Amino acid sequence: MKIRKKFLPFSKPSIGKDEIKKVTTCLKSGWITTGALCKEFEDNFCKLTGSQQAISLNSATAGMHITLSALNIGPGDEIITPSMTFASTINMIALRGATPVFVDIDYGTLNINPDLIETRITKKTKAIIPIHFAGAPADMDKINNLARQYNLTVIEDAAHAVGTYYKGIHAGGFGRIAIFSFHPIKNITTGEGGMITLNDAELEKHLRLLRFHGIERDAWKRYGKGGNPSYDIAEPGYKYNMPDILAALGLAQPPFALRIWLIASLRVAIPLRASLKGVPGYWLAAFVKDALELVLAR
Fold first, then answer.
1. Which of 74, 180, 206, 257 to pair with 5, CA 20 to 30 A apart?
2. Pairwise CA distance, residues 54 & 56, whole Å
3. Which pTM was predicted?
4. Is the four-CA dihedral 195, 196, 197, 202 of positive or negative sign?
C-alpha cells in the first residue's frame, strides 16, 4: 500500500489575491475587531437569504449556544434533530440541560426524515433542528408545517448551506432561525466564524446582548466615528463576536469562492459517479453530482 507523502486535506479553502487584499486593507485600517466590515457581511447575508436580520459570530457553535439560551431552552425541554449529525449541535442542547431527541434520516437524502418527526413530538418538545446535510436542503415544507401545527421553533442547522436552495428559497429564508458556519471546510470561509439569520427584532436584540458580554453597545458603536465610549451591561453574556479581520476574508469570498468550490467538487463527483455505477450506495455519488449541478445552474 502506498502512503501519501503530502497531506490530503478534507477540503481546501479558496484563498486568492482578493482575499489577501481585503484582509491586508483591514489590517492597515487599524480597526480589526467587530466593526463596519462585520455590518457589511451581515447585510450581505440578509440579501442572500432574504432574512430581515443577521448576526455575525466567531463560530456557528456560538450561534447555536446563544440561540438556545435566548429561547430559554433548558432542563425538561426536548429538541428534535436528526440522528446523523455533528457533535456541536448536540453538545449545545446538552449543555443547556435539554434532551436531544433523535429522528432517523431519509436514506435517499441523508436529511432528517420528515415523516418520522411527528412520532417523536411530546409535550416537552420545544424546537426542531433540521440539518441541511452536506448542503442538501431538508424538506422545509413538511418541517415548517409541523412546527406551526405544534407551535415549535425551527432552527436550521445551515452550517454547510451557503448556496443551498429549497424550492427557490435560500436556506435561512423561511422566516425561521438559521445558523451558518464559515469554518475552512465550508463553501465560503472566514477562517472560523458563523452567522445567525432571523426575522425577529426583539430576539435579535437579545442575541446581540448574549454575543458580547451583555453590553448594549459594541466597540464600533463606542469607539467608531461619532461613538460614545460609555456602555451598560444588560445581562451576563459571552464573547462570541466576529472580528472585522475575519469578516474581511468572508466579504472577498462569495460568489467567486463558492463557484470555484462547487466546480472542484464536481470534478471529483463525476468520475466517482462513473466508477461506482452498479455498486450498492451508488445513489450517493449520483445525488452529490446532481445537487452540485443544480446549484451551479443558478
1. 257
2. 7
3. 0.85
4. negative
Query: What is the mean pLDDT of each successive set of 10 residues along the chain, which is 298 residues long?
Result: 74 85 96 95 95 98 98 98 95 98 92 97 98 93 98 97 93 96 92 97 96 80 64 90 97 69 64 69 55 54
Provide the 10 A C-beta neighbour count for residue 253.
Answer: 26
> How many other β-carbons are positioned within 10 Å of the β-carbon of residue 154?
21
Beta bridge partners, 155, equal 177
- Give the Cα-Cα-Cα angle 109, 170, 118 (nearest 5 degrees): 50
Are 161 and 171 in contact by the 8 Å Cβ rule? The answer is: yes
Residues 6+ apart with CB under 8 A from 255: none
Pairwise CA distance, residues 40 & 25, whole Å: 15
The 8-class DSSP code of residue 99 comes to: E
Q: Which residues are catalytic?
A: 186
* Integer CA distances (angstroms), 174 to 34, 87, 103, in order: 28, 25, 22
Q: So what CATH class is 17-253?
A: alpha beta
Q: Answer positive or negative: Cα dihedral of 76, 82, 83, 88.
A: negative
Spans of all domains in the chain: 17-253, 255-298
